Amino acid sequence: MKIFQQTLDLPQKRRGFHIITYEVLDAIPQLHEIKTGICQVFIQHTSASLSINENADPTVRQDFEMYFNKAVPENDPDYRHDDEGPDDMPAHLKAAMLGCSVSIPIRNGLLALGTWQGIYLCEHRNRGGSRSLVITAWGE
Q1: In angstroms, how far is CA 28 from the centroid of its own chain?
Q2: Rounded Cα distance, 139 and 107, in Å
Q3: Which uninterrupted H or E stretch holds 135?
Q4: 67 and 139 in contact (C-beta within 8 Å)?
Q5: What span, in angstroms and rounded, lies between the C-alpha atoms of 30 and 124?
Q6: 54 with 19: CB under 8 angstroms?
Q7: CA distance 21 to 42
Q8: Which domains does the chain show, CATH number per domain?
Q9: What is the pLDDT of residues 2-32, one digit of tens each?
Q10: Main-chain dihedrals φ then ψ at residue 22, nearest 5 degrees
């Protein structure tokens, strides 16, 4: 069994859904040493999330942003947690809906993503700052 772990600090990105597959792959070059295994990517933040989805058509990422903004609107008077601005509590809710990690099979040293799949950083804050990821890969 081989286990590798790396951290990845992503620079601040604008609010929205960003493909980070290549940044993840660049951060863990040891992946090619694993024939069969799992790669987990974990985000160390509560107002951004990770997801896997369409990697080709950018309108999918735009539609994700539109959907989540409608589903979890800003300035809801019922929110009690609003010290950091109107995008703060909605960001926490969106992150809870999407989750803080993704797990991807490793096959022959590569992520076994589907043809049209990519890893998304889902930035839910207007100015979220840099984001830290922990990438762990293990297997035979």
Answers
A1: 16
A2: 10
A3: strand 131-139
A4: no
A5: 31
A6: no
A7: 13
A8: 8-127 (2.60.120.460)
A9: 999 999 999 999 999 999 999 999 999 999 9
A10: -70, -35
Q: Is residue 83 over pLDDT 90?
A: no
Is it the case that residue 52 has pLDDT exceeding 90? yes
Long-range contacts of 90-96 (CB under 8 A, 24+ apart): 90/124, 91/46, 91/47, 91/48, 91/124, 91/125, 91/128, 92/46, 92/47, 92/124, 94/49, 94/68, 94/122, 94/124, 95/45, 95/46, 95/47, 95/48, 95/49, 95/122, 95/124
Q: Please state the length of the chain.
A: 140
d(CA 44, CA 17): 17
What does DSSP say about strands 48-54 and 117-123: parallel, antiparallel, or unpaired?
A: antiparallel
Structure tokens that stand for 31 in this block: 């992946």
Distance CA 46, CA 87 (A): 13
How crowded is the C-beta side of 120, counted as CA atoms within 13 Å?
Answer: 27
C-alpha dihedral over 69, 75, 78, 81, to 10 degrees? 90
Exposure pattern of 92-102 as b/e (b: 16+ CB <10 Å)?
bbbbeebebeb
Regarding pTM above 0.90, the answer is yes
